[in-house]
Please model this.
Amino acid sequence: MMYIFASYIKVFLLLAGFRDVNAGSYVVLLIVVLVAAIGYIAFLHKQNREKQDHIEHKNREIKQLTHEFKLLSILANDTDNLVAVTNAEGQIDFANRVFREIFGISQKADISSKKIFDLPGFEKISEVFLESVRKKANTQTEFFISAGKGHRFWLQITISHAIFQAEHKVMVIATNINDLKFAEEEISQQSEELKVQSEQLEAMNTELEYVNQVTTDSINYAQRIQYAILPRPDDYLKHINDSFVMFRPRNIVSGDFYWYGEIDGKAFFVEADCTGHGVPGALMATIGNTLLNEIVVSEKHSNPAIILKELDRKIKSVLRQEAGLPDQQDGMDMALAQFDYETRELSVSIANQFVFFRHKGALIELEGSLFAIGGSDLHTKKPDFDLYRFKVEPGDVLYLFSDGYRDQFKEEEKEKMMYHRFKNIMQELGEHDFLKQKALLEKRFDEWKGRSRQIDDVLVWGIQF
Model:
C-alpha cells in the first residue's frame, strides 16, 4: 500500500517538474497534501456546522410557532367569539370550540374539507372574504345569520391575514353583537318616537303660538277699550289746578282703574283696586266703571259714603254673591273723593284703603273703613263707610293710590317697599314742585324695583286743587 502511495507521489513530482526525486521531495509533497486535506476537512466541518445552525434555528422557529399556535388555540377556544383560520381559498384549517358548537361540528371532527363560506349563513361573506384576500387587506363587516338550532345572530366579522410557513393564512373572527344591535334598534325606535313626539310638540307649539297671538290681540284690543273709558285730563282739569296719573298695569290690561264724573257742581274722583289683575281684574274694573256711572251720573247720588254703600250692594247683586261663602270675594278696594268746586269743600270716603292729603303743607293720612266693595259678607255688621270733610286751600293735594306701588319687591331681595318707605316718598314729593312729582314718583319706584318683575298693577293719582 505504501509502495503504491510512494509511486503516486513520485509520478506527481515528475509531472510537477521535479527531475531528481529524492526523500526530501517526498516530505515536501506529503506536507502539501496533508495541508490540503486539513483545509478541505475544515471547510466540510464549517459547512456542516452552518447547516446544523440553520436546522437548529428553523427548529427553534418551528418550536416558537408551535408554542404560539398552541397559545392561540387555547385563547381561541376560551373566547366567546367564533374563530376560524383558513387558507386563501377559504379552506378551514382550524375552528375554535364556539365555532364548532354553533355550526354543530364535533370538536374532534376533521373540517379541512370545508370552506368557511359554505357554512349556513356564512355564504354572505364570500364576496367580502375573496376581495379581502385579493387585496390582502384587513376587512370588517356585519351581517345577520341563522345557523340552525335556534342560533340567530348579528355578527361583526373581522378578516385579517398572515403568512405562515410561506402560506397565506386568513383569520376570521366573528363577534356576537346582538346586544349592540338590539340597543341600536331600541335607540332607533326611541329616536323615531321622539321624532314623532317632537313633531307633535311642534304642531302643538304652532297651535299655542296661534292661540297666544289671538289671545294677545284680543287683550290688546281690550286694552284700547279700557283706556278709552278711563277719564281724560280735559274732563277734570277744568275744575282743579293740576293732576298727574302714574298708571302701570302689571299685564296688558289692569285691575286698577280710576274714574271721574260730575253732577250739580260737584266733581267726583275715584281710584279702585279690583280683585286680581290682567283680564279678570279688567272685567271687574269694567263692572265698577259701569256701576259708578249708574249710581253717580244716572241716579244722582253725591254723598261718597252712600255711593260706596250703593256700589257694594250692586256689585254683590251683579256677581250673585251670597252671604257666608268665603270663595265669593270678588270686589274692589276704593277711595272716592267729591269736590264741590263752588264751595271748595272736599268730601272723602274710603273702602279698605287709606289716602294721603297734603293740606296747608302738612301730609295727613286718611284711614278707610275695613269694609271692601263686594264680596261675601263675613262680618255680621253691614258695611259702613266713614266720611272726611275738608275746606280746600289752593295748592292742597289729594293722593289716591292702590297697594301695587308699596307691595313691589326690591330687586334681588324678598322685601317689599311697605307702608313706611312709601310714606317717606310721599313726604319727599311735598319738597318738589307738583309738575315734577310724577317723575320723582316713577324714579323712586324704578330704583326700588330694578330688574325684578312687577307683581301688581300700580296706580297713583295726584290731584292738586
User: Anything to note?
Assistant: The longest helix spans residues 23-78. Residues 151 and 292 are 88 Å apart (CA to CA).
